[in-house]
Amino acid sequence: MRVGLLLAVSLFMPLGASGSVRDFSANVYFMNFGSLTSATRHFRIYTPPAADVPRLRGVVFMMGGSGQDWRYRVRDPVWQEASRALGFAFVSVNMSVGLDSRDSLESILAAAAAATGRAELVNVPIIGTGFSLGAYEATGFSPAVPERVLAVVAHCGGDNHEPGAPVAARKVHTLLIPSLNEAAGQGSYGFPTYRSASVSGNAAFGVNWGVGHTTFVGQEWSMAWTWIAGAAATRLPAGVYPSLEPGNPLALVDVPISSGWLGQRVYAQSSDGSDRSPFPAIAPATTYNATPAASASWLPNEAVARVYRAFSAYDGVTGRTVPRQGPLVITGAAAPSTVVVSDQGIAPQMAVLQLGTVINIGVNPRGFGADTVPDASLDPIKSMSYYEEDRLLGVQTVPGSGGWSLPHTLNTPGIRSVTVVAEDWAGNRSSAFRTVIVSRPVPADTTHYRFERSPGFGVDHYGKLRLSLGGSSGSLPAQVALGATGPGSAFPRALANEPFGNHHAASFAVAGQDRLSLADNAALPSGSQPFTIETFLHLGSHATGGGFRTIATHGEGADLGWRLFVAGEGSGSQSRRLLFRFRADDSGGQPGGTLVTIDSGFELLAGTDYYLAVAFNPADTSASGLRIHLKNLTANGPLQTSSHSHGPTTVYDSPLTLHIGFGWDGLLDEMRLTKRQLTVGELLISQAVPATPSALTVAPGPQPGETLLTWVPAAFAATYVIERSTSPVTGFTVVGQVASATYTDTGLDPAQTYHYRVRAANGDLHSETTSAAAATPHLPATYAGWRYLRFGTNEHIADAMPLADPDGDGLPNLLEYALDTDPLSPGSGLAALPAVVLDSDGALALTFRRHRDDLEYAVLASADLVSWRILAVNPGAVGQELTVSAGAPAGSARFLRLRVGPGAGFGPETASP
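and the corresponding structure tokens:
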């Protein structure tokens, strides 16, 4: 089965996120014929802009083969964007020899820190990757400095793990990718049976099928970046960032083998790949049983496992267009471009797409190129399953008008992989993947003043992000960490464009005359230019009398352009009101114009967390010219908006200083100034990443075939996405999206246990998913439960009504329920009818089984079929085989019958059929 897969998107290179590229040199140290030798190596490093990544989390080393100078690869915009997505720097070198020692690594990182001004580089973990000799050097990092190495990817090169390597080296996430001829017999380049030698090794082995001793021609670098992203996700400690002080390397997480996945490890015993593996097995490490665990590849998580399977699959077809991996190949607009940009050197293997891009995953089930079958009736595919990472997006059993395809929105930034699994009518399966980089856009005309810890402002006392636009005056506000309770606890912990989260705020004290002052510059609006100012705030106390607390002011006194503030307790503008003041255009844009004060209508309480935004257009005098937005975060209230008209004004345009927190008492956080009026969807509050829901519980639902989910609401969640699977670890697919913190799932199999995960959503932004919770659907021992089991519905459809007889055997459903027979099989009901017998005294008796406790079973006798007398009501116990006698000699009563009717607990839906 050969199928091709299309990912129809366009290549996007983000503007404003280019970062910087620097050259530097460092001494390296290595053994040369038994003697310690030093040499100078020349490096080039890319660092994402500090405005985007205020604290680097690691470094990716990319090293070429013998005699290769790979420094130019650092300018590759796709590799830069991949590094930026991880928050990593990216380094390459003119010669690989000598890099893989502790002394060399410390020398290189110290030189990199000095060249870039990023002091944390001395403490970051590293990822080693390379080709040929560079691969050998990359693996050498693990035994030399295992505690500093997060992951290794080796392409077409030897393995530098010596028999005496420390156990810690096995914890390094290691991916070995030989070419086909090098993998024959497990490698002429000496790739060891890494996990066979020690089952504790966190390592994988994948063959670059159809490729010789070369690189950048298949999907090996897409596999590499997927591996790197998976390793970073599992080995970097959450919420911990490298120190700026030398000698404090970041401690990595040791990932247990049991928490990962295993994949069938493919070997090429022949040089032509005739022993290929078209669909390698993958499974959680705790349940994997396809091959001995010691010889299987270890994989960090399900997302990496699915890509590994697609990468390792091979159907023997060669001569394909790039990429060559597997029987499914993703091509189309997002395929590797043939255009090589300046300094790139190679065609990119991964597309870079904006967050929120809608892609179309299209599949050609008849192959591609010379293998294409022109007759659509020959489509061999039975089903197509689509995944993003570990999430099942959908399963199709018939192609649409445009063939096998599925639209999908990329709503999670970072290095993401799309995989498909195709199954043909013979039961054969195959898989393919495409890795894309989902880029976080950098807003235009926006200056974001952050208060996170970062080098460049004081001695790491007060963080900055784009705060180098002018001098400061007054004392510096204190930087405080946001706690789980207290002031600022309801501020968002993460924003879409800020990958390092929101951990600190600025604490302003009136007594200390704290303020931040930025001289007039291009980032500030001028004249009649529209602007939006936003912030998260917490007011510690109100001013007394007619005083006020200023959030921000552009200019001061006679030079005031505008001011955003909260009125004092005794203000003539009403106490505690949020006010916006600007100078009217009655002095030709010069000092002395009338001050106009707009009352927002909002009262700001002390001790409360808020989000605030003011969108002002001086040239628009209608009600849309001034929009003020406020959200009470402490009470998790809605976003409120008030609109105000105003008279003509041109904000005073002489050089003015922007003062932040001038006279404020309390916290200000994440202040952002944009030189245009933002819509609600563009506001910072709309970019707050919701927290992960907590305390997910799943229980049988109120109706048959239902489960009921509840969880604790998450901050900044607009909706919640519910995922379901029959497995606790894989196969989750979206089954619903709701606004409340509860969900009822319906139409379920009562014999099946279902596992659920929930994630919060705020527009296109999503939280992590909860841990899985499970339950079996509700199936009450009532007519409603029996109806659902037999008819698959809770609805009162005609065939499911109590007096209906869908199988035409003369027994209504109510009697079929009482006798526990099948209402859709005429034979079953007749076989279970009560029987008339003679008891030991020769009297007539009725035998039957009482199956239900919500029904009334009555045995009646008659001599004439007109008058009936009750012999017994609900005799015996539920489940018993019963015999009820007429209690008289033979001949005194000639007729007996069983009457069934609703009991005390019977539902109203059957009481009145």
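(Above: one complete record from the training split.) The chain has a mean pLDDT of 80.
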